[in-house]
Amino acid sequence: MADEKNSAPRRVGVDIKIDPEIHRGAYANKAVVAHNADEFVIDFIVDLPPQPQVVARIVTAPIHARRLLDTLADNVQRFEARFGPITATRPRGPGAAEA
User: Fold this and answer.
1) How many structural domains comprise the chain?
2) Among 8, 26, 72, 79, which one is least packed by beta carbons within 10 Å?
3) Is residue 11 over pLDDT 80?
């Protein structure tokens, strides 16, 4: 039974193809989330003059939204343990949109 200690589950890698345009990424400084009974919609927005613009939209099933929430929470916790707390500030001034 000594082997049981050394038989930790192994993570299996997945070969994922990524389009070069998506690989480049998109900057966003706001996000808006909406949902219905079947899906979550997450719009990533660049809020800069003259007008805010959606730069990416993700539509996903509720179970994947939950997994994303859990993964983000875990990563924020690890980030803060390494770099210190993230402080949230509210936008100020004319034209500042709600986050």
Assistant:
1) 1
2) 8
3) no
